[in-house]
Write a sequence for this structure.
């Protein structure tokens, strides 16, 4: 009894900014998956329409903040006829736990999804202990 | 106290006009297709040509199917997210599953010239109007 899973329309969540932005335009919160494997924590953030060059990742102490900017020039001579979703920049911050090896964070982008691989610091990796 | 120097009636009229425009849109007015559904689309006009833009982040381009038949366009496919073996998931906000949507253009379509591009998670379809459907001016002899 396996029913095919269907996507349902998902409303974009607008950013509830605690600080003022210097760029005009709306900001949305990118939908994010966070999962953990043996040696790393991976974050996948959906930022459709954001080009690789327009992604800004900042790490200050343990505060990781990610911003993706939309290039609105692409829409310059487009006249909207019918619209279902709004277009805006993306912004989101996370506080990393101290167990992350902040020197070796790896970022890659594919099909509008930013993937950050945060390697765990060596001393916090799971060790299996054999019972003698 | 902050004063806002905008005319509330202006705002209301703009809103009312926007609502009326959506309700009477040729794209979804009397056809069979409905608003809503996945992927959400925006339709733009540019120099008399139309373009449909949809956000499909994280979908492999091989998993997107586009069919054109007369003036109907179908966008369907599958979105998959792979966490890798043995991963424990802390936060799951991205959706996965199938999507399928069909709509009709309010003009005859040149099916051979429909173009699709997929970049940075955005699908863009350009929809050229069929030559015989374009308005023509007739000279009086």
């Amino acid at each position: 009894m396996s029913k095919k899973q269907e996507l349902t329309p998902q409303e974009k969540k607008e950013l509830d900014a605690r600080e003022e932005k210097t760029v005009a335009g709306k900001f949305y919160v990118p939908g994010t998956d966070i999962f953990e494997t043996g040696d790393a924590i991976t974050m996948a953030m959906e930022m459709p329409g954001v080009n690789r060059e327009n992604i800004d990742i900042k790490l200050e102490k343990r505060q990781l903040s990610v911003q993706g900017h939309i290039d609105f020039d692409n829409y310059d001579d487009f006249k909207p006829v019918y619209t279902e979703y709004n277009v805006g920049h993306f912004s989101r911050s996370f506080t990393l736990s101290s167990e992350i090896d902040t020197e070796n964070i790896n970022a890659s982008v594919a099909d509008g999804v930013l993937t950050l691989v945060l390697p765990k610091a060596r001393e916090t990796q799971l060790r299996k202990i054999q019972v003698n | 106290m902050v004063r806002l120097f905008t005319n509330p009636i202006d705002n209301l009229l703009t809103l009312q006009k926007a609502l009326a425009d959506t309700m009477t849109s040729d794209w979804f007015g009397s056809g069979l297709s409905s608003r809503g559904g996945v992927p959400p689309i925006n339709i733009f006009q540019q120099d008399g040509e139309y373009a449909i833009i949809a956000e499909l982040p994280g979908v492999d381009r091989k998993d997107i199917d586009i069919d054109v038949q007369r003036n109907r366009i179908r966008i369907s496919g599958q979105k998959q997210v792979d966490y890798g073996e043995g991963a424990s998931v802390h936060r799951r906000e991205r959706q996965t599953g199938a999507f399928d949507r069909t709509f009709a253009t309010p003009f005859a379509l040149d099916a051979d010239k429909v173009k699709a591009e997929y970049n940075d998670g955005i699908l863009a379809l350009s929809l050229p109007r069929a030559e015989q459907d374009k308005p023509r001016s007739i000279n009086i002899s």
Observations:
- The domain at 36-84+96-133 of chain B is CATH 2.60.40.790 (Immunoglobulin-like).
- Chain B has one helix and eight strands.
- Chain B has a mean pLDDT of 85.
- Residues 8-23 of chain B form the longest helix (16 residues).
